[in-house]
Specification:
The protein has 16 helices and no strands. The chain is mostly helical and 336 residues long. It folds into 2 domains: 38 residues, no CATH class; 296 residues.
């Protein structure tokens, strides 16, 4: 009978949480579970929402190309996974994550925890990135050269986000552009065969909550980043100003979505995102105050020391999935 301490991590759990995992549990896990852990799979839900929203916007305007849409969705998820893996490899190689108590406390770091060697992780990155690239080539052959511009932009941000963009204080802007026009606009292009400025604008609105997550994470890490010379935007502008920016990003979608509905750029059912307002209000309340000095008694210890980013992620997940649900309702009702 297998010991409880070496039962491994299931695929479902690897998709739901970023676990703290021992070497024995790692070895007892399936290859798929290991890949998901190394890719920080739970955060991929934000990419899923952004990409799926673009496809649903296209379907509301016509039959669309379902094969291209699903291929684009898969390619973007693989690209995000490759970026997360590359982020860990780069930060470990540069010494940023070495002996970094902050980074290794809130989730497994496959290199720093000795679960993979740099060469092994590099192989995973190459395979994952090549799979994403292959899908991009397929889409360019199916749709046309317009995809190449998006493919090139995606490769640029994937390879350069961790270094040097994040160190130059441009990482947060890159995230806004990637989760907005690039993902939502790109998936619209894949499904509809044409570019839509309105879809890109909707994507920009939808990208505000995920960008708030990155901002929040960089606020959480501000002291550690400043000490090792990582000049993220919160480091450059200071924690107080960064928190004000996050509050703005958390509230702005609830102004923009009703306006887009009023101008008939989103269906009325998109207003279902208002059910995410309690999560937004909680995140705003948290961002308006200083963080606690130590983990509160009622706070999950497997999440600490992440504070601002944790509440921002809860909101981003609910907002993205609710907007997706609202568009799905509009598509279903249009077929009745």
């Amino acid at each position: 009978m297998r010991d409880d301490m070496t039962r491994g991590i299931s695929v479902l759990r690897a998709c739901a949480v970023i676990p703290r995992i021992s070497k024995n549990d790692w070895l007892a896990s399936s290859r798929t579970s290991r890949w998901l852990i190394a890719s920080r799979a739970p955060v991929l839900v934000m990419t899923f929402s952004s990409a799926a929203i673009g496809g649903e916007l296209a379907l509301l305007n016509g039959p669309g190309d379902g094969v291209a849409w699903f291929a684009c969705l898969a390619g973007l998820l693989l690209a995000h996974a490759a970026n997360n893996q590359l982020n860990d490899l780069t930060d470990s190689t540069l010494g940023i994550d070495r002996n970094n108590d902050f980074r290794t406390r809130y989730g497994t770091h496959v290199l720093e925890d000795g679960l993979l060697s740099p060469r092994q992780l590099l192989r995973w990155i190459v395979v994952t990135a090549l799979a994403a690239l292959a899908i991009g080539v397929f889409l360019s052959l199916r749709i046309g050269d317009a995809v190449l511009w998006l493919l090139g932009a995606g490769a640029f941000f994937l390879l350069l986000y961790t270094y040097p963009l994040k160190r130059l204080g441009l990482g947060e802007i890159a995230v806004l552009l990637v989760w907005g026009p690039l993902m939502t606009g790109g998936s619209y292009l894949a499904a509809a065969g044409t570019w839509s400025h309105w879809a890109a604008l909707v994507g920009l609105v939808g990208a505000l909550p995920p960008t708030a997550v990155i901002f929040g994470k960089h606020i959480d890490k501000l002291a550690a980043d400043r000490q090792i010379g990582v000049r993220t935007l919160p480091v450059r502008i200071g924690a107080a100003h960064a928190r004000r920016v996050v509050v703005l990003m958390l509230g702005l979608p609830y102004v923009c979505v009703p306006l887009l509905v009023a101008f008939e750029r989103l269906p009325w059912s998109a207003l279902i995102v208002m059910f995410a307002l309690p999560d937004a209000a909680r995140a705003i309340r948290i961002h308006r105050a200083e963080p606690p000095a130590a983990c509160p008694a009622d706070y999950p210890r497997n999440v600490w020391p992440l504070w601002y980013s944790a509440c921002a992620f809860v909101h981003a997940r609910s907002f993205g999935l609710l907007l997706l649900a609202g568009l799905l309702v509009a598509w279903i009702t249009s077929r009745l």
